[in-house]
């Protein structure tokens, strides 16, 4: 049941990301709901579930975007991996830690994107245009993160109540 | 100690798998020049209906709010019609939304009738899922005759071209995307160049010789040489010109004539 709920939830997040998140754009920059979800999965899934979710979310995001296939798979997969590996050593509770780790993840996401973009598409696009926006991007993700974490936590609570013994860490 | 070692090994395997998977995808993607991968089509096929539903709901709600507030004054003036006001409001909201839609579409239809090209009217149902590329999703696909490499325009000018056509929806690469390039010329001087996207709201006109006379406000049209856009479509206007002392070409900034940030309806030009 959990995979089905996750699939449905991911579909809603993807639709929200591509259909109406533009309404909340600031200076043309919108928060990356998929990145926030990948961080959340990395922290909250047992074992290496967060890595799988990160990769799957990144791959789907690649398919729904115009970039080179694999960039988001790499960045979201690695983000899922890092949080999956460090979840027992770090504390991602409360507004400030969530903001901090989301900001860090956003920088990492941009870094991966810029590196791959400039390595693979050398000559076609400099990727320099990313830089004026990436601070706003990171800030916006950090700003939207706590609210989305709250919503995801409510969803998680509901899943754990309805379907106990699932691959989620207890709250 | 042994446990920690095996965990480290496991982590290295996972990390390597992520990097390997990503590079395999990138390699396949770069090597596949014709059309899009099955995976992309499958994901778009699954998401498109929900995306469409979301867009319709958001439009309906925002339209209702916009027109409800507009009609508050009318409701006060018509106190004696209180019994009917709810149904009238609803009806008015629907009509006002329809008028707004018609206002937007009339321009497109006039353009369609004036031009020699056959075209299909399509609504924008979604935007790119990432920050860094500029694409839109439209609600027409192969079932309606839309195919890849078809030009997408509005009555104001060129919007982009179809890069992926599914059965009932399509993906359009906007001219502002950094991978987009449109062969173009200046309307006045007939000097050729290439309008390349920058990933931002403006484009660059490349390969225009330093000797060419270019002024701010000059209109840029499609040249018809790229094989996608018919000749004579308005691409944009020149908003900045820089001539370097050393260098063969000018640095020209072109602002697209079509408002790419607020697209709601577009025309897909059929070949």
List the helices and strands and how they pair.
The complex is a heterodimer of chains A (171) and B (271).
Chain A: H1 2-19, H2 33-44, H3 49-63, H4 71-86, H5 95-120, H6 130-162
Helix pairs in contact in A: 2-3, 2-4, 2-6, 3-4, 4-5, 5-6
Chain B: H1 2-31, H2 38-77, H3 82-114, E1 118-127, E2 135-138, E3 151-153, E4 158-165, E5 170-174, E6 181-186, E7 192-197, E8 203-206, E9 219-222, E10 234-242, E11 251-256, E12 265-270
Antiparallel strand pairs in B: 1-2, 1-12, 2-5, 3-4, 3-12, 4-5, 6-7, 6-9, 7-8, 8-11, 9-10, 10-11
User: Can you name the CATH architecture of the largest domain in chain B?
Assistant: Beta Barrel
Which stretches of chain B are low in confidence, meaning pLDDT under 50 for 5 or more residues running? Answer: none
Strand order of the largest sheet of chain B: 1-2-5-4-3-12
Q: How many helical stretches of chain A?
A: 6
Largest sheet of chain B: 6 strands, antiparallel, barrel
Give the CA-CA distance, first to last residue of chain A: 19 Å
Structural class determined from secondary elements of chain B: alpha+beta
Beta-strand percentage of chain B? Answer: 25-35%
Q: What's the number of extended β-strand segments of chain B?
A: 12
**Low-confidence spans of chain A:** none
Greatest interface and its participating residue counts: A-B, 51 and 51 residues
The CATH class of the largest domain in chain B: Mainly Beta
Percent helix among the residues of chain A? Answer: over 70%
Q: Tell me the strand percentage band of chain A.
A: under 5%
Assign the structural class of chain A, choosing from mainly alpha, mainly beta, alpha/beta, alpha+beta, or little secondary structure.
Answer: mainly alpha
Assembly state of the chains shown: heterodimer
């Amino acid at each position: 049941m959990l995979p089905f709920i996750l699939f449905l939830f991911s579909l809603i997040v993807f639709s929200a990301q591509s259909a109406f998140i533009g309404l909340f754009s600031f200076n043309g920059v919108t928060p990356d709901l998929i990145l926030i979800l990948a961080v959340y999965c990395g922290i909250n899934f047992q074992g290496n579930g967060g890595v799988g979710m990160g990769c799957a979310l990144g791959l789907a995001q690649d398919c729904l975007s115009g970039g080179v296939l694999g960039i988001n798979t790499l960045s979201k997969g690695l983000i899922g991996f890092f949080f999956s590996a460090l979840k027992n050593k770090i504390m991602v509770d409360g507004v400030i830690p969530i903001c901090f780790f989301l900001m860090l993840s956003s920088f990492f996401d941009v870094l991966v994107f810029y590196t791959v973009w400039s390595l693979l598409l050398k000559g076609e696009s400099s990727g320099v245009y990313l830089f004026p926006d990436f601070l706003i991007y990171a800030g916006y993700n950090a700003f939207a993160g706590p609210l989305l974490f709250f919503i995801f936590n409510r969803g998680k609570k509901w899943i754990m109540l309805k379907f106990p013994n699932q691959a989620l860490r207890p709250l | 100690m042994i446990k920690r070692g095996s965990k480290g090994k496991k982590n290295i395997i996972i990390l390597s798998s992520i990097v390997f998977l990503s590079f395999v995808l990138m390699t396949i993607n770069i090597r596949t020049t014709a059309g899009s991968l099955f995976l992309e089509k499958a994901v778009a096929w699954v998401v498109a209906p929900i995306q469409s539903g979301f867009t319709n709901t958001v439009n309906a709600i925002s339209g209702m709010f916009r027109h409800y507030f507009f009609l508050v004054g009318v409701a006060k003036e018509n106190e004696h019609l209180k019994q009917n006001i709810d149904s009238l409001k609803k009806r008015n909201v629907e009509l006002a939304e329809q008028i707004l839609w018609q206002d937007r579409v009339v321009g497109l239809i006039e353009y369609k009738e004036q031009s020699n090209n056959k075209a299909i009217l399509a609504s924008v149902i979604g935007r790119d899922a990432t920050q860094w590329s500029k694409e839109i999703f439209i609600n027409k696909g192969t079932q309606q005759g839309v195919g890849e490499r078809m030009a997408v325009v509005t009555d104001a000018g060129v919007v982009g071209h179809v890069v992926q056509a599914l059965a009932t929806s399509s993906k359009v690469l906007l001219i502002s995307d950094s991978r987009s390039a449109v062969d173009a010329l200046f309307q006045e001087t007939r000097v050729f160049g290439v309008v390349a996207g920058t990933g931002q709201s403006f484009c660059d006109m490349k390969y225009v010789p330093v000797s060419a006379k270019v002024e701010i406000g000059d209109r840029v049209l499609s040249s018809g040489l790229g094989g996608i856009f018919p000749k004579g479509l308005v691409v944009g206007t020149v908003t900045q010109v820089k001539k370097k002392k050393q260098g063969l070409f000018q640095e020209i900034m072109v602002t697209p004539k079509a408002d790419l940030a607020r697209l709601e309806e577009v025309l897909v030009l059929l070949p």
